[in-house]
Task: inverse folding
């Protein structure tokens, strides 16, 4: 079963706008990761936030984590057409090594 | 970061046949993971493959349907056996990387399988 849910399922914005995606999870976590998938290809690791961190930045990406609400958000600022992709959150399964559980994903479309 | 390749990148197969997907990593890794992504869905872990031991399968996946080989630390194969249209999916392999204990994963480009 999936660890979490993401919303929205689909998001369509104009270039230059910001895009915010949310992820909720069910169990205690060591960290939460965000991945991007272009057109059904392989996933690319974007950013990882540890359970003791509240916010993390990487370029135009900003991730927040609220462990009390078991939720995370990914903000992409000043979006570009090249940001069009599916975005997934994922969490390692506690005490099961490197296994990841993925959220349902948000399909982002950025229109030029 | 690891560089991972998969073969084939896509295939169209007939019902009842089998397809073997190869995953090659450019460095030695302990664990490799195989995922399935059904159309419009998220990723679901099929199994974890450790070199020198039997693969560990997740609930809902069995060795007879998805046999896995892991002959060395840089290579693994996943076979989709006796295929049906429901097996049409993207199959991805991945390996761990980054800081030890954080379990970041690096993914191959995927194999898009269509079963007619």
Result:
């Amino acid at each position: 079963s999936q660890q979490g849910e993401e919303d929205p399922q689909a998001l369509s914005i104009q270039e230059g706008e910001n895009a915010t995606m949310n992820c909720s999870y069910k169990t205690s976590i060591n960290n939460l990761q965000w991945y991007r998938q272009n057109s059904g290809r392989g996933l690319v690791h974007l950013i990882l936030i540890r359970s003791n961190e509240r916010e993390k930045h990487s370029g135009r990406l900003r991730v927040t984590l609220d462990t009390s609400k078991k939720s995370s958000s990914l903000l992409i600022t000043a979006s570009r057409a090249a940001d069009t992709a599916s975005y997934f959150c994922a969490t390692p399964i506690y005490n099961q090594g490197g296994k990841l559980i993925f959220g349902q994903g948000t399909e982002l479309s950025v229109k030029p | 970061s690891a560089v991972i390749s998969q073969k084939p990148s896509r295939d169209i197969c007939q019902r009842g046949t089998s397809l073997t997907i190869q995953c090659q990593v450019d460095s030695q890794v302990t664990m490799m993971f195989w995922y399935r992504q059904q159309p419009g869905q998220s990723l679901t872990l099929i199994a974890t493959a450790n070199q020198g031991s039997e693969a560990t399968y997740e609930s809902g996946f069995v060795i007879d349907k998805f046999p896995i080989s892991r002959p060395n630390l840089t290579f693994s194969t996943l076979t989709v056996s006796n295929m049906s249209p429901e097996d049409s999916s993207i199959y991805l392999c991945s390996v761990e990387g980054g800081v030890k204990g954080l379990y970041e994963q690096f993914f191959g480009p995927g194999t898009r399988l269509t079963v007619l």
Observations:
- The interface with chain B takes residues 2, 30-31, 33, 35, 40-45, 48, 50, 88, 90, 92, 97-105 of chain A (CB under 8 Å).
- The radius of gyration of chain A is 13 Å.
- The mean pLDDT of chain A is 91.
